[in-house]
């Protein structure tokens, strides 16, 4: 691979991972790598069930609780006991449920739960913090797969709350630009041993009324302390207990959310959320009986998120909402989507398994079997070689092999927005001369050296920010303002100097979502209006909607066929090694007649000297592989209902045509002279004068005829005239599969003349059916096929070696000589070989 594919990471709001005496944010991962999940958002929702706890032992390892009549306790359940007066939540992990053998009457009807104390979480008020900790701190934001972000901050009490209220909302003053989304868990640190945890509820931005105005950024939220020690609370203290599970929701745009409910917080829970499998784990042969119900729920419909097995830890909820709010967007690096898909450069390595590049036709299957069956820790086969696992496939195509490659496109520089000019405020300048009337000055604030109206209201400019755009192009504009009763006017422009700015939206909300825009740069600003007054315009903001790609296809004149040759050569060896599958090839769209002829000549050139290519040319001993492939050209131009005219390589449509004809009439019928549907035109246009040259080169040319777009020849690339027709190769593949399937039924049968008669009859029955359907030439069965099992084939030496052979000789429905397919069975293994 040219670059490693990147997996999107999703913060899980309200979920924390226990890391000894510390807490860490919890992250889920997309179920597969790449940029496919950029537009998804994740949320959690806490589910609680009240539990009656009658007491516990002093060591905190046994809790007496009354089980619910509907369902009992299970290992892995998380129990939370809340001491409201002390604002403390203590967490216990249930390990076992035992019969209560104690005698105190207060425990009557209860069971003894063996538990592991996880720790206690205490919610701190602003008074607690200010009385204990210094005002200045470091705020640490832990991010996945990267270094934590650390900023300096100060503690501030929300002035709208009573000074000693338990419901104080904590506000942290932070540097501008530091804006973790709601739900983020941050660490407040004064030293290595002294720290608290802060859960973000909102981002605040205010403008001071001083002259000139100054902006302040803050984070509003809740502060917690954490102790991993067993709680020392008295059982007689006022408390209530709950058994906790949670729900995980994932939504893409406005579509309905996918949900997984009853998720656990610990590995022992049968629905432990971190056991969610990614695609590689779900579709591997290995099973996970402990979490099978979770895997089944995530399989259909396929849930987009997966856990991280490297964190086999325990988790607790911290400020988790019951309403699946807030939602968190996918986090990833600032690389483009193509780079995060691992496709920064185009090469044959995307299509081939590097471990099999040096394998020839005779050794490829053995090498692949060694990797698959005798190397337990080896990764599965990749690229086209992964198709070895799909035994029922008889056709294979690699349409993406025809790409010309790509390179980064030149992107124009994004100009920052110009500062907006102050608006006119006539009420600020009533003291100016009236005759002649003076134009009100442009100013950010009124002139306080003059007498101003006592009821003059000064609206301050809002502060504008943006979240997004996401992968679908949607983004949300947010603004903050102290004037909560004002109406806000949002303006949009296409140029940084605000030329042509227009009113996009008006209302009292503090947010507006723009669902779609064409690629380009869009400039936004907002102002407030109230009681006939208007604020000046806010800071300007530019939102760039990138084109679907920041890459461009390389010019046709710079095309080098090296990658395509590697892929086609490897595909030919793959098909010949399997012996029961045929490749449908195509050429790049820009290939003209001379390009096509030159490429075919290079592809079929035998190996003469060592090549720098990772896949060597097919040697003279591998010439039979060319009968397992057919090549088609030119490309189709098709019309899509939503996308207009599109070009497409022909191999996909041809593969469908071959399959349809095989199902309708049989594999022995030539897949030609049948019109394609949905085709508007062809590209490039092939001149009539080159038809014969391309026919002799065994290129199956797609042509426009009065009856439609169709292909009038059906040739493989084989130089052997008997194997040149596609229908001959397809018939031999059919016979090979039939011979192997029937031959396996005779494993362990005694090797005697009775076996010969039974095998003879079984194969003659199959051949007769094919003869009746027209698969063979000849007016009679004897002239069409032969099944040979006599002493000329099975000698005494074969009998002694435990080997039994069957020769199937057929004359395909073409004027040609007999071809022989030989079935050889030795012990438990059967093989089929063509004998020309």
Question: Can you put this structure into words, describing what you see?
Answer:
The chain is α+β, with helices and mostly antiparallel strands. The chain has 4 domains: 212 residues, no CATH class; 217 residues, no CATH class; 123 residues, Immunoglobulin-like (Sandwich), CATH 2.60.40; 99 residues, no CATH class. Helices cover 15% and strands 32% of the residues. The chain is built from 13 helices and 40 strands. The strands form 8 sheets. Strands 3, 4, 5, 6, 7, 8, 9, 10, 11, 12, 13, 14, 15 and 18 form a 14-stranded antiparallel β-sheet that branches. Strands 19-30-31-35-36 form a 5-stranded mixed β-sheet, with helices on both faces. Strands 23, 24, 26, 27 and 28 form a 5-stranded antiparallel β-sheet that branches. The chain is flat. The two termini are 40 Å apart. About 2% of the residues have low confidence.
């Amino acid at each position: 691979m040219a670059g490693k594919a990147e997996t999107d990471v999703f913060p899980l709001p309200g979920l924390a991972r226990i890391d000894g005496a510390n807490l860490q944010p919890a992250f889920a991962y997309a179920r597969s790598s790449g940029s496919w999940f950029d537009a998804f958002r994740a949320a959690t929702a806490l589910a609680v069930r009240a539990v009656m706890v009658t007491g516990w032992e002093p060591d905190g390892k046994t809790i007496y609780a009354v089980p619910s009549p509907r369902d009992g306790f299970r290992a892995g359940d998380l129990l939370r006991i809340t001491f409201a007066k002390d604002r403390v939540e203590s967490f216990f992990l249930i390990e076992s449920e035992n019969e209560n053998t104690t005698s105190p009457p207060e425990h009557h009807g209860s069971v003894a739960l063996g538990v592991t104390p996880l720790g206690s979480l205490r919610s701190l008020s602003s008074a607690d913090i200010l009385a204990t900790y210094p005002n200045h701190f470091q705020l640490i934001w832990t991010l996945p797969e990267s270094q934590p972000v650390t900023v300096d901050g100060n503690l501030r009490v929300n002035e709208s709350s009573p000074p000693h209220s338990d419901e104080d909302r904590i506000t942290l003053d932070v540097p501008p630009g530091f804006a973790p989304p709601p739900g983020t868990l941050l660490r407040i640190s004064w030293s290595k041993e002294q720290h608290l945890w802060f859960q973000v509820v909102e981002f605040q931005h205010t403008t001071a009324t001083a002259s000139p105005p100054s902006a302040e950024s803050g984070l509003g939220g809740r502060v917690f302390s954490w102790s991993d020690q067993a709680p020392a609370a008295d059982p007689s203290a006022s408390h209530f207990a709950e058994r906790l599970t949670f729900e995980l929701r994932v939504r893409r745009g406005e579509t309905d959310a996918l949900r997984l409910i009853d998720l656990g917080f610990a590995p022992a829970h049968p629905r432990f959320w971190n056991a969610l499998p990614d695609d590689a784990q779900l579709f591997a042969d290995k099973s996970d009986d402990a979490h099978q119900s979770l895997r089944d729920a995530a399989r259909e419909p396929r849930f987009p998120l997966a856990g991280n097995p490297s964190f086999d830890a325990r988790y607790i909820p911290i400020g988790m909402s019951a309403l699946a709010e807030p939602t968190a967007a996918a986090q990833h690096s600032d690389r483009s989507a193509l780079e995060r898909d691992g496709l920064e450069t185009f090469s044959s390595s995307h299509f081939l398994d590097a471990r099999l590049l040096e394998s020839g036709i005779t050794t490829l299957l053995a090498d692949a079997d060694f990797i698959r069956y005798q190397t337990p820790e080896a990764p599965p086969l990749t690229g086209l070689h992964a198709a070895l696992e799909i035994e029922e496939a008889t056709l294979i195509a690699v349409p993406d092999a025809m790409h010309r490659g790509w390179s980064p496109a030149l992107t124009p520089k994004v100009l920052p927005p110009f500062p907006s000019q102050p608006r006119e405020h006539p009420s600020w300048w009533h003291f100016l001369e009236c005759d002649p009337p003076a134009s009100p000055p442009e100013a950010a604030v009124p002139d306080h050296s003059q007498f101003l109206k006592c009821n003059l209201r000064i609206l301050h400019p809002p502060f504008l920010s943006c979240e997004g755009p996401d992968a679908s192009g949607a983004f949300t504009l947010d603004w903050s303002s102290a004037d909560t009763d004002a109406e806000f006017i949002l303006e949009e422009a296409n140029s940084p100097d605000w030329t042509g700015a227009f009113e996009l939206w008006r209302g009292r909300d503090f947010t507006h979502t723009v669902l779609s825009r064409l690629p380009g740069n869009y400039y936004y600003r907002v102002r407030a209006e109230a009681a006939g007054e208007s604020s000046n315009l806010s800071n300007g903001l530019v939102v760039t909607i990138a084109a679907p790609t920041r890459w461009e296809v390389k010019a046709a004149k710079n095309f080098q066929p090296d990658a395509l040759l590697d892929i086609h050569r490897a595909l030919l060896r793959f098909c010949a090694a399997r012996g029961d599958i045929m490749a449908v090839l195509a050429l790049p769209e820009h290939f003209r007649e001379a390009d096509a002829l030159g490429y075919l000549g290079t592809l079929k050139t035998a190996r003469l000297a060592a090549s720098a290519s990772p896949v060597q040319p097919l040697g003279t001993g591998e010439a039979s592989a060319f009968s397992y492939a057919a090549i088609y050209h030119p490309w189709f131009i098709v019309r899509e209902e939503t996308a207009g005219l599109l070009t497409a390589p022909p191999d996909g449509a041809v593969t469908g045509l071959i399959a349809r004809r095989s199902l309708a009439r049989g594999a022995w019928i030539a897949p030609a002279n049948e019109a394609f549907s949905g085709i508007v035109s062809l590209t490039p246009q092939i001149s009539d004068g080159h038809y014969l040259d391309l026919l002799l080169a065994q290129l199956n040319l797609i042509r426009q005829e009065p009856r439609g777009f169709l292909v009038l020849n059906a040739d493989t690339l084989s130089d052997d005239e008997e194997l040149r027709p596609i229908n001959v190769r397809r018939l031999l593949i059919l016979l090979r599969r039939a011979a192997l399937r029937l031959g396996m039924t005779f494993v362990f049968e005694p090797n005697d003349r009775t076996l010969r008669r039974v095998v003879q009859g079984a194969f003659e029955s199959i051949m007769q059916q094919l003869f009746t359907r027209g698969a063979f030439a000849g007016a009679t069965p004897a002239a069409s096929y032969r099944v040979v099992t006599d002493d000329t084939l099975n000698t005494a030496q074969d009998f002694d070696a435990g080997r039994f052979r069957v020769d199937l000789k057929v004359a395909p429905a073409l004027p040609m000589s007999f071809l022989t397919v030989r079935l050889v069975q030795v012990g438990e293994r059967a093989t089929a070989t063509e004998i020309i």
